[in-house]
Amino acid sequence: MSQYKVGFVSLGCPKNLVDTEVMLRKLSDEGYIITPDETEADVVVINTCAFIESAKKEAIDNILDIAWLKENKSLKGIVVCGCLAERYGEEIMKEMPEVDAVVGVGSMSDISAAVEKALKGEKYFSAKDKNLSPLGGDRIVTTPDYAAYIKIAEGCDNRCTYCAIPYIRGRFRSRPMEDIIKEAKELEAIGVKELCVVAQDTTRYGLDIYGSYSLARLLREITAATQIPWIRVLYCYPDKITDELIEEFKNNERIVKYIDLPIQHVSENILLRMNRRGGRDAVLSAIKRLREGVPGITIRTTAIVGFPGETEEDFEELCSFIKEARFDRFGAFAYSREEGTPAYDFPDQVDEQTKEDRYSVIMQTQADISEALNELKKGTLVTVLTEGYDPVSSAYYGRSAADAPDIDGKVYFNSRRKIKAGTFVNVRITDVLDYDLFGTEERS
Asked: Which one of 71, 75, 78, 439 has the fewest beta carbons within 10 angstroms of its own beta carbon?
């Protein structure tokens, strides 16, 4: 059995984190010692993101940081995998001599061979067909015991003109329902109390293998097979919000009344250029039907500003809509020009300064909305999943059903008793600060 130590750096989205956890398990099963401390590792695996320019820069910065350990410490090898490796694998091998092995998205099952070669100081490159890579797999869960992600599909067929994901991750492929249910049971067995359902487009789930949108059925099956209290759904597309899915949100008490629904824009002109299915009507219809069908639902959305051809009028239309819709959660991105995507060659590219200005304006618009919505929560009683204790504020903290891990705010609260992470508590909200809430535990 190997006594070599392997460290991991996982960048990007939760879907990438699940891939990291599968690779961790594979290496662990083969006898490698997994270490959280990169300075004591023999090999470091960097699972990268390459969705937008800032993600690529973060990935490269991490590779260079780890390379310092190779020069100055005992690190023997660096393995780069994930989206950056899939998109720029050959360039990485040519231009970054610090990197020993590159493993594309379709080759993650080759991670052991890559680590073995890196330990020997030999170069290794694998870029198999991403459309044939295994779906799922046993994992070492790296999130806290009480919360985990479950990936229900791989790839994307939507072909938005700005997005490189279909070229990086391949076509949309749903995991069989029985595999997902089995994994959900395993996660429940290790103590998971919040299960976040993820895919590039969760609402498309099942279309390729069952012939119809099957997310609602999958949620019913997970609920029937487990007792996990919170099931959270992320990354839904407006044009695929079915009546059946809305009914499931409404009637299934264990599906948290929270949906991540990226709209990207609301101007018909821009949505057409983005190739967003259904256009403005799909966006408006989805929001209206969700709010009417699931009273009190928290809707999180994202938008892109500075897309090629976005006029001042288009941007104003988006801002007006954000003010009118009053989303509970909102994030914006300045358009990132990605080579290989149709939008890269679009005319009327917007200059960087205008993108930054528009980003600042729309985020300030949402900050005002968020503050007003949070003020309305004063005096209310919310259920919070405790995550820990913050010595700086001398308070416990956690998340309500309205807050997804890592992307939304926190609920800080005082309690007279000691509370373990993973415990559900009721908190009376007394104050707000930006995107966070403060309160006191109330025991019945």
From this structure: 71
| 246 phi-psi bin (left φ>0, alpha ψ -120 to 50, beta other) | alpha
Q: What is the pTM of this model?
A: 0.93
Q: Where are the domains of the chain?
A: 5-132, 147-374, 381-441
Q: Would you tell me how many other CB atoms lie within 10 Å of the CB of residue 184?
A: 23
Question: Is it true that 147-374 and 381-441 share their CATH fold?
Answer: no
The answer to whether 7 and 36 have CB atoms below 8 angstroms apart is yes
Tens digit of pLDDT per residue, the chain (444 long)?
468 999 999 998 889 999 999 999 999 999 999 999 999 999 999 999 887 888 888 999 999 999 998 888 889 999 999 999 999 999 999 999 999 999 999 999 999 999 999 999 899 999 999 998 889 899 999 999 999 999 999 999 989 999 999 989 999 999 999 999 999 999 999 999 999 999 999 999 999 999 999 999 999 999 999 999 999 999 999 999 999 999 999 999 999 999 999 999 999 999 999 999 888 888 899 999 999 999 999 999 999 999 999 999 999 999 999 999 999 999 999 999 999 999 999 999 999 999 999 999 999 999 999 999 999 999 999 999 999 999 998 999 999 999 999 999 999 999 999 999 999 999 999 999 888 999 999 987
Partners of 280 in beta bridges: none
- CA-nearest of 71, 387, 20 to 6 is 20
In terms of C-beta density within 10 A (0-12 exposed, 13-18 middle, 19 or more buried), how is residue 136 classed?
A: middle
What size, in residues, is the chain? Answer: 444
Closest CA to 6 of 166, 148, 162, 115: 115
E strand or H helix that includes residue 21:
helix 14-29
CB 84 within 8 A of CB 164: no
What are the angstrom distances between the C-alpha of 241 and each of 99, 277, 287?
43, 12, 9
Say how far apart CA 216 and CA 54 lie, in whole Å.
34
For residues 343 and 336, is the Cβ–Cβ distance under 8 A?
no
> Residues 382, 386, 391, CA angle at the centre, nearest 5°?
115
Nearest to 219 by CA among 209, 228, 208: 228
DSSP code for 25: H
CA distance linking residue 16 with residue 391, whole number of Å: 31
Homologous superfamily (CATH) of 381-441 is Nucleic acid-binding proteins (2.40.50.140)
* Tokens read off for 242: 């079915």
Say which CATH topology domain 5-132 has: Rossmann fold (3.40.50)
